[in-house]
Amino acid sequence: MVTRLTFCGAAKNVTGSRYLLEMPDHKFMVDCGMFQERQFLSRNWEPFRVPPKELEAVLITHAHLDHCGLLPKLVSQGFHGRIICTSATADLARIILLDSARLQEEDAAYKKKRHLREGRQGPYPEIPLYTTEDVEATLPLFEGVAYDTPVPVTRGVNASFHDAGHVLGSSMIEIAFDRENNDRDIIFSGDIGRWDRPMLKDPHLFRNPDYVVMESTYGDRKHEQADVIASELADIINETIRAGGHIIVPSFALQRAQEILYYMNELLIDGRIPDIDVYLDSPMAIRITEVYKHYEHLFDREMQTLLKKNLSPFDFPGLKFVQTTDESKALNFLKKPSMIIAGSGMITGGRIKHHVSNNISRPESTILFIGYQAEGTLGRIILDGANTVRIFNRPHIVRARIAQINGLSAHADRDDLTRWVGAFKEKPEKLFITHGEEKTAIAFSHYLSQKGFKTVVPNYGDTAVLT
Q1: What would the pLDDT profile of 240-273 be if each residue is shown by its tens digit?
Q2: Based on the domain organization, do 371 and 434 belong to the same domain?
Q3: What is the pLDDT of residue 115?
């Protein structure tokens, strides 16, 4: 039996993860993510590679939009199979997909009004990719499963979800094909986490995979260590407080927001920073934080110890949750130095754009990046050193301090990725390098090939035959 693997996304780029597996009588997908880089947005509107109604299942590695964000579109176009993931991922995806639909509906209405006023047509349809109703139709299809427990996907195919250590509920998916009892398997790494990180357990290791589809987001660089991260964060906060400014933190609502709270809690407990008000200005991040509280058994030992001592990073003095729009607007008038954490992480939308707009021309304030900034995003433009940026269609001179802490990334760096593949007792027949910018994926592929791995960096739309 031959299985065809088609790379429908995250091929020489870092978003839009989507992999199609086709056997003679069965079709299913791993991940169904949204493209978020500006130059690839049009791919979100392209037809799926096969009619959605022909798919029996979609297996989801985790709840980030670039891995699950097109599920409602898939459902709206006829998919009615199973969406299989961990229970934590299912709970988080509900929040993230509903928020995504709301933002798309608002964005489509705004563009339609603006284009009508300007008498022009935009590059994309003035309709959302999907609606809130599409999300509501998607949610009943989710099937939450436990880690390390084989789940039947279709006849002769089982899947096991293993802890990826990336975000809460994140998984590496092991798909086993029973070829007349001559079992073969393929591992989809999803986004690989890091060892010895706050809150989450270490990534799962595999021994003898036949094929591997592996991410490479940071495959050409190394992150700072945890002690360096804490020191850098403390220095940035202390310097900004002395200058009388605010620390503005663009943050993804899932994992990154919770991790920065973890470090803030640690620094306050250790007395390395003065008391400071920390505003989590993201209703979605607040809801996600509540989900985290329900899955304490997935935390690592250190996090569980903090909770037992009533030193939760989700409930420390000075932490304030900002829910309403009026409460968010009131942050424009804060008198004393504060930290404002808001989404989106790449400043592509949401409340963070307002806070960056209000602070980016203030030399006493700091814009602190704690996550990956994809090419073409406003975050990347600022981080690359632009002197002037356009926000809400108005130019803003960049006078604020621009800082970045790479070590806060939930993605494995090159050393972590090398450690992961180094656990294989035998090298896989083929290792597909995905989910990385083209130069990074190619560099990491070359790095692994020098270590004896047979690597491939697929292009968007490429198909590989697994025999």
Answers
A1: 999 999 999 999 888 889 999 999 999 999 999 9
A2: no
A3: 61
Tokens of 216: 């490479």
Rounded Cα gap, residues 304 and 177, in angstroms: 37
Q: Are residues 83 and 200 in the same domain?
A: yes
Q: Are both 49 and 113 inside the same structural domain?
A: yes
431 - beta bridge partners?
212, 455
CATH of the domain at 296: 3.40.50.10890
Residues 141 and 200 in one domain: yes
Chain segment 190-224, per-residue pLDDT in tens: 999 999 888 999 999 999 999 999 999 999 998 87
Q: How many domains does the chain have?
A: 2
- Is the link from the previous residue into 344 a cis peptide, with omega within 30 of 0? yes
Which residue, chain included where needed, has tokens 């706050």?
198
Residue 114 is predicted with a pLDDT of 66
3-state secondary structure of 277: strand
The whole-model pTM stands at 0.88
Closest to 311 measured CA to CA, from 299, 320, 303: 303
184 and 56 in a single domain? The answer is yes
Nearest to 204 by CA among 420, 427, 430, 429: 420
Q: Which domain holds residue 210?
A: 3-221+410-466
User: Cα torsion at 195, 227, 199, 197 (round to 10°)?
Assistant: -10
